[in-house]
Amino acid sequence: MQSTASPTEVLGDRSPAEFLDTYWQERPLVIRDALPGFRSPVSPEELAGLACEDDVESRLILEEGGAYPWELRHGPFDQEEFLNLPETHWTLLVQEVDRLLPEVGTLLDHFRFLPDWRLDDIMVSYAPTHGSVGPHIDNYDVFLLQGQGHRHWGIGTEPVTDEEIVPDLDVRILADFEPDEEFVLGPGDMLYLPPRVAHHGIATDDACMTYSVGFRAPRHQDLVANFLQHAIETLDSDARYSDPDLEPVDHPGALHEDARQKVRGLLRGLVRDDASVDRWFGQFLTRPDRDREAVPPETPVSESALVDALRQGQSLRRGPVARLAFIEHDDGTATLFANGEATELGAELAYAARLVTGRERIPSETLTPHLDDEAFVDLLTSLVNEGLLELDRA
Quick one: which H or E segment has residue 381? Predict the structure, then answer.
């Protein structure tokens, strides 16, 4: 079962401020007993079962025993395929296990000292003895929580600028990796790695399971491309360049000032004001990855039924496919972003944005003081019936 440690305890004896100031995107950190007494909420058999499902992203990496060294296979897998695996030197990786299993999703609450939109997903890996994905780098921050068994780590201490990759392999493995530090992590221990710090983990016993809490780091190209696409959609499709005040030119090959000013004005006008950019940013960040969509409940819940359930002690939890964020405005209003859609909340309802975001599970006692507010109940009901929040029936 999951540890009940508070968010600050996951950093050992360091405060979030100290961690962010000293380690975040600067240097690795080993945290012993980050979650004391932690037990993996997923068994190897359950993980393998998830890897057999059609809508689950999973991979098998076979260093040895495959068709060739470092063979990469993509799921979904057949159960027979697991029975035919070699005894050692392979790894199963399953993405978005936090979306698939609520008990894994609640692990994210230990990292809420970081911006919610930066959290990506929890990937869970299983490996028998000597299982590894090879020495490599990631382009994002990652916390590697040992869930079961033990893993030997060799890591670098500085970001790699120009990596040399072993050619002609299915996976990107660093050539000539030499670790600066080595150690073994057991259940509840955790390793933090900044972007592009080389690392190599090897299972030292059977049933080694590691939980990788990855972070989103959108490429500048992706941010700009998405904003430009958004801006294009706001333009009149029939609008064209025009120059009714055109005068005879001194030279037909010259790009004259009037034309340049018109085009500059058009492009600058794409960024109309800070508020429009903020709105686009909130919508962009809350769009689910991998083309996921929230699934509404088969039977819509009524406002009265939802209120009754909450008053009886049932909590709400984030839906399997839900990204939520908000912006508070100077006039006391707020904008709630949910899976790429923006909802404006008036000053009297702006408080709701904080209540429904920032955690996987929302305790009933947090919600019940506001259940006499019809606008709040209407908002909760809408979020539940859109599949963004759901009653926690656990």
Answer: helix 374-385
Per 3-state DSSP, what percentage of the chain is helix, strand, and coil (rounded to 5)? 30, 25, 45
Q: Which residue in this structure is represented by tokens 């073994």?
A: 184
The whole-angstrom separation of Cα 35 and Cα 44 is: 20
Note the pLDDT of residue 272: 79
pLDDT in tens, 284-331: 999 988 778 999 999 999 999 999 999 999 999 999 999 999 999 999
Q: State how far the alpha carbon of 228 is from the alpha carbons of 73, 99, 223, 324, 367, in Å.
A: 36, 30, 9, 23, 39
Tally of CB atoms within 10 A around 110: 22
301, 387 Cβ separation under 8 angstroms: no
Q: Report pLDDT for 4.
A: 40
**In contact, 117 and 323? CB cutoff 8 Å:** yes
Give the burial class of 1: count Cβ atoms within 10 A of its Cβ; 0-12 exposed, 13-18 middle, 19 or more buried: exposed
Locus of tokens 């809490």: 213
Give the Cα separation of 202 and 150 in Å (integer). Answer: 9
Q: Which two tokens stand for residue 317?
A: 């939890």
Chain CA centroid to CA 363, Å = 23
pLDDT tens digits, residue range 40-97?
999 999 999 999 999 999 999 999 999 999 999 999 999 999 999 999 999 999 999 9
CB-count exposure of residue 368 (10 Å: 0-12, 13-18, 19+): middle
pLDDT (tens digit per residue) in 116-166:
999 999 999 999 999 999 999 999 999 999 999 999 999 999 999 889 999
β-bridge partners, 197: 159
The answer to whether residues 20 and 111 touch, using CB atoms and an 8 Å cutoff, is: no
Assess contact for 168 and 21: CB atoms under 8 A.
no
Residue with tokens 């709630």: 336
Peptide bond between residue 86 and the one before it cis (omega within 30 degrees of 0): no
- In b/e form, how buried is each residue of 135-152, taking b as 16+ CB within 10 angstroms? bbbbebbbbbbbbbbbbb
For residue 58, how many C-alpha atoms fall within 13 Å in the half-sphere facing its CB? 24
Distance CA 116, CA 12 (A): 21
Q: What is the pLDDT of residue 394?
A: 60
